[in-house]
Amino acid sequence: MIWNLLTQPTGTYPVEIDLLNGDWDKNQLEDMSVDIGRKPLTRADFFQSGRRMRTDFLPTIAKRSGAGTQPIEDYKDVRLAQICSGAFRELVEQFDPGVHQFEALEILDRNGQPEKRDFFWFFPGVRLHALDPDRVIPPLSGPGYYDQTIPPADWHFVFQQAIVSSHDVFCTAEVFNLIFVSDRLKQAIEIAGFSGIRFAGPYDLS
Predict the structure, then answer these.
(1) Are 157 and 202 within 8 A, CB to CB?
(2) Domains in the chain: boundaries
(3) I need a surface site. Which of 53, 98, 157, 199 has the fewest CB within 10 A?
């Protein structure tokens, strides 16, 4: 089984993360080649594309703000991308060592002091063409995209086991802005008790 890894805010009010350096609008992928359809990926798709990010303009320091007083989640969305705790990084590295991109992000508390835990930008480093075109519902479009305009409850992904079986975290070219994980990694995340995470699925294998 395959699962979609999603964020789940904690607390009554959210913790906000204000970026203090870098230039967010200039972020680019290392590889902008077209592998599906006719057009390169847009900036909104970079962070869950399965391709490495350039670090020239990636922020390295941030400060928490907002009304939330709870600890920063182990997995959290920031500006269409995602950050994670050092503990989350260590777990992913146990399953996919050296595969994914983690870039340090120092986060200051409201008093300007460094948070006690380490945090990282997290960009999956595996991009696959993994959906089974004969079994997904609805069928893939002419260029090979999955129709994500239908309600998520009606998404019926079927992944090719021969393609995904050696990966525990991956993105797939047919689907935009989603990160997928294996069943065994999902179970390990749940056992670890990481905050800020929910899953959609499961999705079948063929």
Answers:
(1) no
(2) 11-123, 127-205
(3) 98
Q: Are 197 and 6 in contact (CB under 8 A)?
A: yes
The whole-angstrom separation of Cα 53 and Cα 31 is 8
Helix count (H) and strand count (E) of the chain? Answer: 3, 13
| Integer Cα distance of 90 and 58 in angstroms | 21
E runs forming strands in 69-161: 75-78, 81-85, 101-104, 106-108, 119-123, 127-128, 158-159
At 42, is the pLDDT very low, low, confident or very high (cuts 50, 70, 90)? confident
Least confident of 86-100, 108-122, 138-152: 138-152
Question: 187: pLDDT confidence band, cut at 50, 70 and 90?
Answer: very high
Of the candidates 66, 56, 73, 61, the residue with the CA atom closest to the CA atom of residue 15: 66
